[in-house]
């Protein structure tokens, strides 16, 4: 929404058509165009096909924003089955494939394009009271993948940066708060700004990273967490 408000036409991918269509309507209200590519980006084959379709039907792409992932499990590491651990791929696979396919097409053009990966502050710290440590592990991997790719592509005018959100009132976190209210309540008390962020507060940072204003920034992992990790640094 923020990118559309700043003047971008947008291609949306996701599983849920109803949600995609609602977002398309909101984007078009800004006077921008929006296209839907319905796919499960957590499925490698569908992800590859979606990326190729985007390039074939809507290329060239100037900005790639990788935003697939989530903490789907809450099981302590000592009890975590291997097949659950392997859900780490949800947070990694699409970031890699989209960067490889769509970002790779950017390199061929040698124009000032942008790749923005959504990592997490959880890639820098361990969250209290939460299981499913494959989430922290995968988000840390996204940060390192961001840095490594940025180094490889720096001379080609394609910047690669990561946004590392803290607690935001997204739909998954609202679900988490219903299922684990004590974790969310405890989390909230540890935020120096004393509240979760609103999803729209992430938008301006994405716009900055997508714009010419950030042309000399690459390989950065930018925290936006209401100060949560400041307390972590003090406590530990």
Give the arrangement of secondary structure elements:
Elements: H1 2-5, E1 10-14, H2 17-28, E2 34-38, H3 44-58, E3 63-66, H4 82-85, H5 88-109, E4 113-118, H6 134-153, E5 158-165, H7 171-179, H8 181-189, H9 203-210, E6 221-224, H10 228-235
Parallel strand pairs: 1-2, 3-4, 4-5, 5-6
Give a description of the structure.
The protein is α/β, with parallel strands linked by helices and 236 residues long. The protein has a single domain, classed as Rossmann fold. Helix content is 47%, strand content 14%. The chain contains 10 helices and 6 strands. The strands form 2 sheets. Strands 3-4-5-6 form a 4-stranded parallel beta sheet, sandwiched between helices. The protein has a two-stranded parallel ribbon with strand order 1-2. α6 links the parallel β4 and β5. The longest helix has 22 residues. The radius of gyration is 18 Å and the shape is globular. The termini are far apart. 29% of the residues are buried.
Q: What helical percentage do the residues reach?
A: 40-55%
Number of strands: 6
The average pLDDT value, as a whole number, equals: 90
Query: What's the CATH C level?
Result: Alpha Beta
Our Rg estimate from Cα atoms comes to 18 Å
Largest sheet: 4 strands, parallel
CATH architecture: 3-Layer(aba) Sandwich
Given as residue ranges, the uncertain stretches (5+ residues, pLDDT < 50) are none
Number of domains: 1
Number of helices: 10
Q: Helix/strand/pairing class, anyone?
A: alpha/beta
> Termini separation (Å)?
37 Å
Order of helices and strands: HEHEHEHHEHEHHHEH
Envelope shape = globular
């Amino acid at each position: 929404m923020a990118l559309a408000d700043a003047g971008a036409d947008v291609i949306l991918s996701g599983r849920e058509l109803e949600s995609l269509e609602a977002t398309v309507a909101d984007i078009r209200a800004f006077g921008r165009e929006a296209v839907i590519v319905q796919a499960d980006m957590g499925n490698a084959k569908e992800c590859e096909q979606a990326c190729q379709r985007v390039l074939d039907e809507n290329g060239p792409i100037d900005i790639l924003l990788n935003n697939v992932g989530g903490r789907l499990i809450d099981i302590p590491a000592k009890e975590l089955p291997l097949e659950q651990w392997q859900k780490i791929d949800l947070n990694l696979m699409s970031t890699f494939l989209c960067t490889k396919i769509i970002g790779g097409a950017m390199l061929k053009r040698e124009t000032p394009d942008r790749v923005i990966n959504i990592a997490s502050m959880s890639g820098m710290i361990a969250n209290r009271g939460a299981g499913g440590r494959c989430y922290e592990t995968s988000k840390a991997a996204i940060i390192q993948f961001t840095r490594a790719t940025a180094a490889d592509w720096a001379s080609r005018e394609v910047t690669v940066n990561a946004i590392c959100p803290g607690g935001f009132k997204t739909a998954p976190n609202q679900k988490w708060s219903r299922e684990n209210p004590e974790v969310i309540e405890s989390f909230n008390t540890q935020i120096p700004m004393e509240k979760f962020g609103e999803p729209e507060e992430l938008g301006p940072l994405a716009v900055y990273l997508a714009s010419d204003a950030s042309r000399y920034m690459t390989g950065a992992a930018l925290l936006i967490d209401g100060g949560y990790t400041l307390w972590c640094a003090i406590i530990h």
